[in-house]
Design a protein that fits this description.
4-stranded parallel sheet; 6-stranded parallel sheet; 42% helix; homodimer; 14 strands; DNA-binding; alpha/beta
Chain lengths: 344, 344
DNA sequence: GAAACCTCGGAAACCGATTTCCGACCACCT
DNA sequence: AGGTGGTCGGAAATCGGTTTCCGAGGTTTC
């Protein structure tokens, strides 16, 4: 990230300084200025220096639009969030923005708010601006239809994936995350494990539930009861816990989200169960607001969304530079152990 | 928001279609194409139609960089979040992006992560891109030094404010929000009111605390104990509640944040106090994750950040169009009543 | 002393739009 | 038939850069 001084002095009449202003002050032609600033051509050291100090003095910042016109590159990418920007999109955005900024790219932010019309409108806008690439992201992990066919710029889907397997998608290995959780619970000696999660219509909920069951099967165990599908809320966590404890005996509960897990923790405590001594608890998302505020703090699965955003950006940059990586790229989750599974 | 079809067909050799391609297909000159597409000049209806259908057929999208070069306008604004994008920035971003998008402006997202170097780097980048304006936002409400002096483009500060009173800032009337809370507690018959809030070094905490005390004084009452400054966390809410109840008797607690309030609610319940019958509880932020999950749901103060973002964007657009509104613009908060202050 | 070579920097084309200015063409009138 | 006026559309300048090509000098070489 190069750091130079800001313009000290605006050119004539408040209008931004142009290369002509610099050329005039340095007493050379505009072509020479361009060469001096970009290190092209062969110039005498004295000339180069004269140009540079003239540019410095005027606070010259080259007009990107003009550069775009001749180079064909905008050094710009669009990020379309198909759902509203939410808790999951933020770390993604940040990671992507970080990686792109380091590559000297600027980011156009577009929030389509789950409206296909807005989505296509933004797409048109971005194409009109000749972005070098597009990152598509959203809240749901369900595969979605490609945003358009045969676009003239590379597209990378992040967090969500495209239904077309030839598109480049970077997704979280949610099943792997669920397996991490189960393995950890087994490692701390639990065997009667239940699963409470979100709505069955949500891809994340079904994928995690299925992986949980299959991992237990691999270990020669069975899930206690069926997976409890409901909502991604604390209230559902509390309610589901009551349902579960009424009919089953468990020594661990793996939850589809930290919010649910927190509700479960409260309900367990209300019935006199101790966490983790009587029941160990694992959440999902590693959302600090929930996992740290929970009593005791929650062991959770972190999807490493910021790193995912960075990966997506890196893949986009690679594609722009002619090294595409089509297909679905899956990234592992990380287990974060806290007091809800191991007593101190 | 105009909606037209996406390019069906890319021009020759995958390169985006230019106005020359359209001119060639329509059998006219590029000047004529420009006039036909923009409704300028005088053209025969038949000619205009011929051009339009050629453009449609080729999926022509005018190159914004070229338009920028001749018009001097980029129809682009930069949004710099000086702190990391967080819970408060998101609704702000969304509101601003919404208002700007409706004005056909695209938004460059810049996350400076509380690093002055990054901030100046992004500023330079935005100026190089010749944005039409800049919105500066951040997490802290404390007035901040202007991002730079004498910029060639308009700047609006949103949520945070600039220390220079001539700059245009749009801020939340946090003191007014605190007064709303106190008035509500008085209206539901409470008189022994305490205040638990965040760190004393935080502007928000001190402003809200001061307004709380002064409003009580106006009502002929006094705050119970001194404001309890600590952290913006549930843990502090629980801890502060224990401290408070050890020495004072209260019938209401106004908290500096919903997180604190939730901790307070838990601690109150742990000591057998009922909310709201024994102690009424008001939070701040109206953060649904906290205020709705709390038992009972929290009455809270909503800062209406999305509307604030929209206002900031509108003021920026007005300034760009030559109607500046310098100075500090304060926006009211909204009281959201839930079960933590009125029993059902 | 003249030819060859090298160094340096300027002139001009180019990117893709907009916009001004002007000329071609037609119809109409005297 | 020739002048006048109006309509339509093209040529070219312009925006602010990059890049290619070439020529003006000075230096080296035989």
């Amino acid at each position: 990230m190069p750091t130079r001084k800001l313009p000290e002095k605006v050119g004539n009449s408040g209008r931004p300084t142009t290369i002509s202003d610099v050329a005039q002050l340095a007493g050379v032609s505009i072509g020479t200025v361009s060469k001096a600033l970009n290190g092209r051509g062969s110039l005498r050291e004295e000339t180069r220096h004269r140009v540079l100090s003239a540019a410095e003095q005027l606070g010259f910042l080259p007009n990107k639009a003009a550069m775009t016109l001749s180079s064909g590159r905008t050094y710009t990418v669009g990020m379309i969030t198909t759902d509203t920007i939410g808790r999951f999109s933020i770390p993604l955005l940040m990671g992507a923005e970080d990686a792109l900024g380091a590559g000297e790219m600027s980011v156009f932010l577009c929030d389509a708010r789950d409206d296909p019309i807005r989505e296509q409108y933004y797409l048109r806008t971005l194409l009109g601006r000749r972005v070098d690439g597009i990152i598509v992201t959203g809240r749901r992990t369900q595969a979605r239809p490609p945003i358009a066919a045969d676009l003239p710029v590379p597209v990378v889907y992040a967090f969500i994936s495209s239904a077309d397997p030839r598109d480049c998608s970077v997704v979280v290995d949610e099943a792997g995350g669920a397996r991490l959780a189960v393995d950890h619970l087994l490692a701390v000696g639990r065997s009667r494990i239940a699963h409470i999660t979100g709505p069955e219509r949500h891809h994340s909920a079904t994928v995690r539930a299925a992986a949980t069951e299959s991992r237990l099967t691999e270990a020669g165990l069975e899930l206690v009861g069926a997976p409890l599908f409901g909502e991604w809320s604390e209230a559902w966590g509390r309610q589901a816990t009551k349902i579960l404890l009424g009919t089953h005996d468990v020594d661990a509960i793996f939850c589809g989200s930290d919010q649910i897990a927190r509700g479960v923790a409260d309900a367990l405590q209300a019935t006199g169960r101790r966490v983790p001594d009587d029941v160990a608890l694992v959440g999902f998302d590693n959302w600090d607001v929930m996992s740290l505020a929970c009593q005791p703090p929650l062991t959770s699965i972190d999807m490493e969304l910021e790193a995912l955003g960075r990966t997506a950006a890196d893949l986009l940059l690679a594609t722009i530079n002619g090294e595409p990586s089509p297909g679905r790229h899956s990234r592992p989750c990380r287990l974060v152990v806290r007091d809800s599974t191991v007593s101190r």
